[in-house]
Design brief:
The complex is a heterodimer of chains A (727) and B (182). Chain A contains 25 helices and 21 strands. Chain A is α+β, with helices and mostly antiparallel strands and 727 residues long. Chain B has one domain: CheA-289, Domain 4 (OB fold (Dihydrolipoamide Acetyltransferase, E2P), Beta Barrel). Chain B is globular, with a radius of gyration of 17 Å. The chains are: A alpha+beta (727), B mainly beta (182).
C-alpha cells in the first residue's frame, strides 16, 4: 500500500476528528458533564493518538497521550470540564491541528519552530498539571495491592468473571490494561486477578510496545453487563473479551473454556485460582465437556447463549441492546464512504455527456418518427434524468458544518475584544456544492469578524441605547429560486451612510458632485482600500477585507449586498448560484443562436402582439408595467426578426423583466459548461451548453442581466471606480 | 502529450546555434494563409485542424472572438486572427479552417481555435532558416511575431502563439452593445 496515500487519509481523518472534538468541546459549554460528549472527545483524541503511532509521529502520540490521560480522568469523574479546561482543550485541538498541518506539509516534527515548540511545551505542562494528583495514585506498584490476590472470599462464583486476552496492538493503540482495571474499580471490586504470561516471548524477542498479556479476573459489582462491557469498548476489536455474569451455569464456563485459546485443563485451574470455580465445579464442567463432546460434537454457541438468555434474560437483553447500539453506530459510520472529489467530478461530467447524447438520440428519434424508437428513448431519458438527480446531490453538502465552525470564532473573538457576543445559526441544513462551501469559509470569517468588531457596539454604548448587553451575530442560509442566500446579520450599531460617504469622498472614491442612493453608498464598503473603522484593531479595519470578500464571492459568480439601519444593525446578504453542473433550463432562439434561461427564473411566456412595446421599453402585464428588452438588440444580432416574437418573463430577487426572443423551444436539461477564462469578463452569460444537435447554446445569467438592466444610467460603472482605486 | 507540452518550442528558435542538429535536425511548422499572407505556427502547439462548422456567436465579448464550437463535448472559443491583428474581419468560404491550438497560460493549458483562410502545409525547418523579426515595418504587431522563417526565397511570419492568443488580453477587450452601461 502506498504510504503517502495512507498518510493523507490520516491527515484528513485527524482534521475531521479535531473538528468533531472542537464541536464537542463547545457543546460541553452548554451541557457540562454530558458523558456522550466527553466520550466523543476522548475517542477523537484516542484515534488520533492511535493513528499517529502508526506513522511514528511520536511527538503527536506523546502529546495526545497526556491529553487523553486527562480526558480519562474526566471520564472517571475525577475531573470536571470547566471553562478553564475547555479552553485548554480548545488550544490543545488547535495545536494538534497545527502539528498535523506540519505533517501534511512534510515538515520534520523533531525540529519545530520556536513558537510551536513553546506552545507545545506550555500546553503539555498545563495538561500535566491536571494529571498531577493522579500520578500520585497511579504508580504501577501500588496497583496490585488494591487487588486482593489469590483465593480470597467469594468462592461460590457470586461475582462476574472476565477473561481478557489483549490484542498485541493494545498498547500501541493507546490503551493501557491497567487503566481499564482502574476503571473497573470505579464501579466494582476486582476480587482476584490472574495474569496469563504464556504469550510472553523471551526477553530478546520481546517488543516493549506489544501487549502479550492476558488476564482472568473475578470481579464483584452490582453494575449490569452493559457497563462492564463498555469498559472494553476501545479494545474489543483486536482483543478477546469474555464476560460471564455471576452464577452462570457450568455450560457457560465450559463454553468459555472452549473458546479461549489456552489449553482447557490449564484454564480450568486458572478459573479455580481466580476463585470463579471451586474444584468440584471444575470437575463438573470438565466432565460435562467430555459428555458434551460425546453427545454432540458441535453444540452451536448460539444455542448455548439462547439457553442462557432464559436464565439471565435482563442482563443479556441489556448487553444485546448495547451491542446493537454499538453495531448501529458502526454501521452508520460504515455507510459513509470517503470518495475522491475528482472521481465525483468525473462521474458528473459523464452524466452531463450522457444527457447531451440522450437529448441527441431523442431528437433523432423524433425526426425519424419511429414510434417504438421514440418510446425507447423516452424511457431512456427518464432513467437518465433519475441518474442525474441522484448524481448531483453527491457533491452537495450541508452548510451547517461550516456555520458551526463559527461558534469557535465567535467565542474566541468575543473574548479577545472583550464583548459579550452570541452566535445564532439557522438554515444549517441548506445544501450547496462542496467546492462552494469550501470557498465560503474565508469570506464568512471576515464578515463575522467584521460584524463583531465593527458591528456590535461596546457594552456601555449598548446599555446606553437600551439594548440587551449580549450582542448577537446571526448566520442564516436558505434557498431562493436557483440560488443560495447566506446572510450575516448583527444587532449592532449599523452603518451611517453619511460617514461612509464622507470617508469615500476623503479617499477620492466618490467625487463631491456625485449624489448616491443609500444602497450605492453601502456598496462603497466593498471598494478596495475602504475602511470606516476609526481605530485599526487587530481583527479588521485595515481597509483590506470587504473588497477581498466581494472578489471571492464574485469568483463564485455570486453577488453581495449590504443593508443597514443605523442603531439597529447590519445585514450582509450573499447570493450564490448552486453551481450545479446541470440545471433545468428553458431554451429559446434568437437569430441563429440558442439561449438557455434557468427554468427557475422563468415566470411565464407570452406572445408579443405589438411592436410598440419594444419602442416604449415596457408592456402591460396583469395590470403592471413590465420592462422589456429585445435580446436581439442587446446582443447586436443583425439578422431579420421573425414576424412573431415572444416574451419570456423572468424574475429574480424582486426584479422582473420581459426578454423578447424569436422563438420558444421549450424545457431543456442543461449541462453547464463553464465559461472559461476567455469569457471571464462576459457580464450576461452563465456558461455554455451543448444542444442535442451538437451546436453550442449560451446560458443567460439572469440575475446579472437584470441587475445591469436595472442599474440607473447615471451611475458610474463599477469598473471605472475600481480601476481608479487601484491607481 | 505531457512530454510535448513540457518542452518549450521557443528554445529551438531562440538558440539555434546551441542545438544539436543530429538529435533534432528539423522542426515542424504548420503554415496557413490569412488575408493573403502566409503565416506559420509551431507544430507542437497545434492539436488538430478541423473544417469550419457553424460556430455560435457570443454576444457582448471582444469582437475578435468569432464564436464557440463544440469540439467533442468541449466548448472551444474560436479567435478571428484577422481582427486580433487589427487587419480585417476574416471572411468565411469553403476553404476556411479552424486550427485547434493549445496555449499554455499561467496556470493551465487553454484550448482555442483560430480561424484561418486556408491551411497550406507542414514545413520542415532547420534553425538556420529562422531570422529575428525586423524592428519595424511588420504587417502585424511585432509582439505577435516570434521569428521570420526564410524559405523558398520568401519570408513567412512565425507567430508567437502565447502572445497572439493571450487569453487575458482577449478576455479583457470589451465589445458589443454598450447600452447596458452607458
Amino acid at each position: 500500500m502506498d504510504m503517502d496515500e495512507v498518510l493523507k487519509t490520516f491527515i484528513a481523518e485527524s482534521q475531521e476528528l479535531l473538528l468533531q472534538m472542537e464541536d464537542a468541546l463547545l457543546q460541553l459549554e452548554h451541557t457540562p458533564g454530558d458523558a456522550d460528549t466527553i466520550n466523543a472527545i476522548f475517542r477523537a483524541a484516542h484515534t488520533i493518538k492511535g493513528s499517529a503511532g502508526l506513522f511514528g509521529l511520536d511527538l503527536i502520540v506523546a502529546f495526545t497521550h497526556i491529553a487523553e490521560s486527562v480526558l480519562d480522568r474526566v471520564r472517571s469523574n475525577e475531573l470536571q470540564f470547566n471553562a478553564e479546561l475547555t479552553a485548554l482543550f480548545l488550544q490543545v485541538g488547535d495545536h494538534l491541528a497545527r502539528l498535523i498541518a506540519l505533517v501534511d506539509a512534510g515538515a520534520d516534527l523533531n525540529t519545530l519552530e520556536v513558537e510551536v515548540q513553546a506552545t507545545h511545551e506550555t500546553l503539555s505542562e498545563q495538561l500535566s498539571y491536571y494529571l498531577a494528583p493522579a500520578t500520585a495514585a497511579k504508580p504501577v506498584a501500588s496497583q496490585p495491592t488494591r487487588i486482593e490476590r489469590g483465593n480470597a472470599s467469594g468462592l461460590s462464583a457470586d461475582h462476574w468473571h472476565l477473561s481478557l486476552r489483549f490484542g498485541p496492538d493494545t498498547l500501541r493503540n493507546g490503551m493501557d490494561p491497567l487503566g481499564l482495571f482502574r476503571y473497573l474499580n470505579t464501579f466494582g471490586r476486582i476480587v482476584s486477578i490472574v495474569p496469563l504470561l504464556d504469550r510472553l516471548p523471551s526477553a530478546a524477542e520481546m517488543d516493549p510496545e506489544t501487549c502479550y498479556l492476558g488476564f482472568e479476573i473475578a470481579f464483584a459489582s452490582d453494575a449490569d453487563k452493559a457497563t462492564i462491557d463498555g469498559t472494553f469498548e476501545f479494545v474489543r476489536e483486536d482483543s478477546l473479551i469474555r464476560i460471564l455474569p455471576p452464577h452462570s451455569k457450568s455450560d457457560e464456563y465450559l463454553e468459555l473454556i472452549r473458546t479461549l485459546p489456552e489449553e482447557d485443563m490449564r484454564l480450568g485451574e486458572i478459573l479455580m485460582r481466580c476463585g470463579t470455580l471451586t474444584a468440584a465445579e471444575l470437575q463438573e464442567v470438565l466432565l460435562a465437556q467430555v459428555e458434551g463432546q460425546q453427545r454432540d460434537e458441535a453444540q452451536p454457541i448460539g444455542q448455548v447463549l439462547m439457553e442462557q438468555s432464559l436464565v439471565q434474560a435482563p442482563v443479556i437483553a441489556a448487553a444485546l441492546q448495547k451491542q446493537q447500539q454499538i453495531k448501529d453506530n458502526r454501521s452508520n459510520e460504515n455507510s459513509l464512504i470517503r470518495v475522491d472529489a475528482n472521481k465525483l467530478d468525473k462521474l458528473i461530467d459523464l452524466v452531463g455527456e450522457l444527457i447531451i447524447a440522450g437529448a441527441g438520440a431523442r431528437m433523432t428519434a423524433k425526426n425519424c418518427g419511429h414510434s417504438e424508437m421514440l418510446e425507447a428513448t423516452e424511457l431512456l431519458s427518464r432513467l437518465v434524468e433519475e441518474v442525474r438527480d441522484s448524481a448531483l446531490p453527491l457533491r452537495m453538502v450541508q452548510i451547517g458544518a461550516t456555520f458551526n465552525r463559527f461558534q469557535r470564532v465567535v467565542r474566541d473573538v468575543s473574548k479577545e475584544i472583550g464583548k459579550d457576543i452570541s452566535l445564532s445559526i439557522s438554515g444549517g441544513e441548506t445544501e450547496l456544492d462542496k467546492s462552494v462551501v469550501e470557498r465560503m469559509g474565508d469570506p464568512l470569517t471576515h464578515l463575522v469578524r467584521n460584524a463583531m468588531d465593527h458591528g456590535i457596539e461596546s457594552l456601555q454604548t449598548r446599555q446606553a441605547n437600551g439594548k440587551p448587553a449580549q450582542g448577537n451575530v446571526c448566520l442564516n442560509a436558505c434557498h431562493d429560486g436557483g440560488n443560495i442566500i447566506i446572510e450575516v446579520t448583527d444587532d449592532g450599531g449599523g452603518l451611517d451612510p453619511q460617514r461612509i460617504l464622507a470617508k469615500a469622498r476623503e479617499r477620492g472614491l466618490v467625487s463631491d458632485s456625485q449624489t448616491l442612493t443609500e444602497q450605492e453608498i453601502f456598496n462603497l464598503i466593498f471598494e478596495p482600500g475602504f475602511s470606516t473603522a476609526d481605530q485599526v484593531s487587530n481583527l479588521s479595519g485595515r481597509g483590506v477585507g470587504m473588497d477581498v470578500v466581494k472578489r471571492n464571492i464574485s469568483a463564485l459568480r455570486g453577488t453581495i449586498e449590504l443593508s443597514s439601519t443605523l442603531g439597529q444593525g447590519t445585514r450582509v446578504r450573499i447570493r450564490l448560484p448552486l453551481t450545479l453542473a446541470i440545471i433545468d433550463g428553458f431554451l429559446v432562439n434568437v437569430g441563429q443562436a440558442g439561449y438557455v434561461i434557468p427554468l427557475e427564473q422563468v415566470e411565464e411566456c407570452i406572445e408579443l402582439h405589438s411592436d410598440s412595446a419594444i419602442t416604449r421599453g415596457h408592456l402591460e402585464l396583469h395590470g403592471q408595467m413590465l420592462p422589456v428588452v429585445r435580446l436581439r438588440e442587446l446582443f447586436d444580432d443583425d439578422s431579420t426578426p421573425p414576424r412573431r416574437e415572444s416574451v419570456v418573463v423572468v424574475q429574480q430577487g424582486g426584479l422582473r423583466a420581459g426578454l423578447v426572443v424569436d422563438q420558444l423551444v421549450g424545457e431543456f436539461q442543461t449541462v453547464i459548461k463553464p465559461l472559461g477564462k476567455v469569457f471571464a469578463a462576459c457580464r450576461v452569460l452563465g456558461g455554455f451548453t451543448i444542444l442535442g444537435d451538437g451546436s453550442v447554446a449560451l446560458i443567460l445569467d439572469i440575475p446579472r442581466l437584470l441587475t445591469q438592466l436595472a442599474a440607473p444610467r447615471s451611475a458610474v460603472p463599477f469598473e471605472t471606480k475600481q480601476s481608479y482605486a487601484h491607481e | 502529450m505531457n512530454e510535448l507540452t513540457a518542452s518549450d518550442p521557443r528554445a529551438h528558435a531562440n538558440a539555434p546555434g546551441q542545438r544539436n542538429t543530429a538529435e533534432h535536425p528539423r522542426q515542424q511548422y504548420l503554415s496557413f494563409m490569412l488575408h493573403g499572407r502566409c503565416y506559420a505556427l509551431d507544430g507542437l502547439s497545434v492539436r488538430e485542424i478541423i473544417q469550419y462548422g457553424r460556430p455560435t456567436k457570443v454576444p457582448m465579448v471582444s469582437p475578435c472572438i468569432h464564436g464557440v464550437i463544440n469540439l467533442r463535448g468541449a466548448v472551444v472559443p474560436v479567435i478571428d486572427l484577422g481582427l486580433r491583428f487589427a487587419l480585417a474581419k476574416t471572411q468565411v468560404d469553403r476553404r476556411t479552417c479552424i486550427i485547434i491550438v493549445e496555449v499554455s497560460d499561467t496556470e493551465a493549458a487553454q484550448t482555442l481555435g483560430i480561424l484561418v483562410d486556408a491551411v497550406s502545409e507542414v514545413l520542415e525547418v532547420v534553425p538556420d532558416e529562422m531570422n529575428p523579426p525586423p524592428a519595424f515595418g511588420n504587417p502585424i504587431p511585432s509582439a505577435f511575431i516570434q521569428a521570420m522563417l526564410h524559405q523558398r526565397n520568401d519570408f513567412i511570419i512565425v507567430l508567437n502563439i502565447e502572445n497572439a492568443l493571450a487569453v487575458a488580453e482577449i478576455a479583457g477587450q470589451p465589445g458589443g452593445n454598450n447600452a447596458l452601461t452607458a
